[in-house]
Design goal:
Strand order of the largest sheet: 1-5-4-3-2
Strand content: 25-35%
Number of helices: 2
CATH class: Alpha Beta
Distance between the termini: 35 Å
Order of helices and strands: EHHEEEE
CATH superfamily: RelE-like
Number of strands: 5
Shape: globular
Length: 101
């Protein structure tokens, strides 16, 4: 059974900044391609919530959207809360969800 997806404020803020960057530095086409990839991943998570890798916090999972962006989510009953998106190129020690601290 598909679950409802809830987007938390932190995730939405990071998504907004990323889309602005992609449009400004690359093109609207690239931004739209990113949104398409994100939508595909969200659909997969909606149908199969356990698809993501378990993080340092056992209730939080992650999935790679592109090679540069990973989203973090948790299952809350019949909902999936998308809580954050982190650039994979940044220092892994600064990622609060990373196992390799």
């Amino acid at each position: 059974m598909a679950k409802q997806i809830i987007y938390k404020k932190r995730f939405l803020n990071k998504l907004d900044k990323l889309l602005i960057y992609l449009e400004k530095e690359w093109s609207i086409t690239i931004a739209n391609e990113f949104l398409d990839k994100l939508e595909e991943k969200m659909h997969a998570i909606k149908l199969h919530p356990d698809i993501g890798s378990i993080t340092l916090f056992k209730k939080i999972r992650s999935i790679l959207v592109t090679k540069h962006n990973r989203i973090y989510y948790r299952i809350e009953g019949n909902k999936i809360a998308v809580i954050n998106m982190i650039d994979t190129r940044k220092n892994p020690k600064k990622n609060p969800f990373n196992k390799s601290k």
